From TrEMBL:
Residues 14-469 form the Aldehyde dehydrogenase domain. It is an enzyme of class 1 (oxidoreductase). One of its GO terms (biological process) is L-valine catabolic process. Keywords: NAD, Oxidoreductase. This is methylmalonate-semialdehyde dehydrogenase (CoA acylating). GO terms for molecular function: methylmalonate-semialdehyde dehydrogenase (acylating, NAD) activity. It holds the Pfam family Aldedh. Its EC number is 1.2.1.27.
């Protein structure tokens, strides 16, 4: 085993969980057993919540300008340790080093936003009638929790860590049991940045501890990022227990390609979107809707896809089960009459035979009713459906139950506007394959890709992680008393 067993991080210290149940942490790159992760009990969660609750009065009363100083230092530490963090992400998640570097760069951007929060949470004040003012303040919630997925071991946790904590909350995070190592390292960086003990805590485990988080009486709010099936369970359990909850789910992102699209740029963007992070991004291109004759672009996509080589510029998928599931989708589409233009099944990497690789896969002549058209595959696979009109293409996009992202590739502004207006998704791209809004704009989908109101990052996160206190103030008796005062 390459690393020591993973421990929980409670009240500023790494501690063993109270159970001896563990899971192995396996590198998808080559099957190496990296570590073990404990399946914590509710006793462990109780300890973490107690620590967070005790840290809250002092941390929440620390002025925000002082709180964000921790994140200025944390940003510097992310920069300083970028290579080491990227190597760790790659090792436990399977993505390439380049993708892992980009993930930490995104964490830096998220932290920069948190550093700007004092400029954004100033509250409001108005003299509402003579001598009487109304004032609003943003008050932190208390103990908040985040439950995160495997596909971004650093970025998704950093969607919430800097903002929630800078806004004055104390936090519990449950990493994905598949990738717990990066967050362990992040805990040490937060401590080095000067975050007081108890403000940030990690409790490792699987669904059992996630369920305990959703029911814990001292946790005020829960964010979840993961599959739609689990997002629904978490949202229902957390809100049933009267918690504020925002649960982001899975996706099936449609890219609409028109004949006037720039072939080279379109093919490069679509290939990068479907194969980046081995297709394990909730913003990945998964379905392409070809409008009219775009064969010249499809040919170029195939050329580009063939340049994406497992183990070189394409990482591994998370597990053996994932590889099997993805390959099964491809086989089923083939059996149902779709045409496999580029086939990623059976990919192996020399010297890494225990790695779990799937090559880029382009499937043409997919029908909307096939599973590859409807379901989230979460692998480097794009399913192409053919249509004759933009209206028909948008109807296909609208019919899918998810709503994270949709993109259009065209040189025509009115076609682009049509898609922006009609697509049923929270994040739209025009000639962009992965339309992730960058800070200060917020991240969040629609429909079955998100449950709860608001978005998880950017200015929207201020709403989620604070509540408004409204004061009506009168100091001068001469203001008098009437029914409005
Ligand atoms: P997952 O839903 O299997 O697991 C996510 C988290 O939930 C993990 O921490 C896991 O331990 C926990 N969990 C699992 N079962 C649970 C249960 N029954 N009750 C409570 N918690 C449970 O997701 P994953 O496989 O880790 O991640 C991939 C999924 O995440 C994909 O569907 C992807 O689209 C989605 N995702 C969405 C976004 C977004 O912004 N919408 C971002 C990243 C990933």
């Amino acid at each position: 085993m390459k690393y020591n067993p993973v421990q929980n991080y409670i009240n500023g210290k790494f501690v063993d969980a109270t159970t001896d149940k563990t899971l192995d942490v396996i590198s998808p790159l080559d099957g190496t057993r990296l570590s073990t992760v404990p399946l914590s009990s509710s006793d462990d969660l109780n300890k973490a919540v107690k620590a967070a609750k005790e840290a809250f009065p002092k941390w929440s009363k620390t002025p925000i300008k002082e709180r964000v100083q921790v994140f200025f230092r944390y940003k510097y530490l992310l920069e300083k340790n970028l290579d080491e963090l990227a190597a760790l992400i790659s090792e436990e998640n399977g993505k390439t080093i380049g993708e892992s570097v980009a993930e930490i760069e995104k964490c830096i951007e998220l932290t920069e936003f948190a550093c700007s929060l004092p400029q954004l949470v100033t509250g409001e004040l108005l003299e509402v009638s003579k001598g009487i003012e109304c004032r609003t303040e943003r008050i932190p919630l208390g103990v908040v929790a985040s439950i995160v997925p495997f596909n971004f071991p650093a970025m998704v946790p950093n969607w919430t860590i800097p903002n929630a904590i800078a806004l004055g909350n104390c936090m519990i995070i449950k990493p994905s049991e598949k990738v717990p190592l990066t967050l362990t390292r992040i805990a040490t960086l937060l401590k080095e940045a000067g975050l007081p003990d108890g403000v940030f805590n990690i409790v490792n485990g699987n669904s059992e501890i996630a369920t305990a988080i959703c029911a814990h009486p001292d946790i005020e709010a829960v964010t979840f990022v993961g599959s739609t099936k689990v997002a629904k369970i978490v949202y229902q359990t957390a809100t049933y227990n009267f918690k504020q909850c925002l649960a982001l789910g899975g996706a099936k992102n449609h890219l609409i390609v028109l004949p006037d699209a720039k072939p080279e740029m379109t093919a490069q963007n679509i290939t990068a979107s479907m194969s980046g992070c081995a297709g394990q991004r909730c913003m990945a291109a998964s379905a392409m809707v070809a409008v009219g004759d775009v064969d010249h672009i499809i040919n170029k996509i195939c050329e580009e896809a063939k340049k994406v080589v497992p183990g070189k510029n394409l990482g591994a998928v998370i597990s053996k089960q994932s590889k099997e599931r993805i390959e099964q989708y491809i086989t089923e589409a083939e059996q149902q009459g779709a045409k496999i233009l580029v086939d990623g099944r059976g990919a192996t990497v020399e010297g890494k035979e225990n790695g779990t690789y799937v090559g880029p896969t382009v499937i043409d002549f997919v029908k909307p009713e096939m599973s590859v058209a409807k379901e989230e595959i979460f692998g480097p696979v794009i399913s192409i459906m053919r249509t004759n009109s933009l209206e028909e293409a948008v109807a296909i996009e609208n019919n899918n139950p998810y709503g994270n992202a949709a993109s259009v590739f065209t040189q025509n502004g009115s076609y682009a506007r049509f898609v922006i207006d009609k697509a049923s998704a929270g994040m739209i791209g025009v000639n962009v394959g992965v339309p992730v809004p960058r800070e200060p704009f917020s991240f969040g989908g629609w429909n079955e890709s998100k449950f709860g109101s608001g978005d998880i990052t950017g200015k929207s996160s201020i709403e989620f992680f604070t509540r408004l206190k409204k004061s009506t103030i009168k100091w001068n008796p001469e203001a008098g008393t009437n029914w409005m005062s």
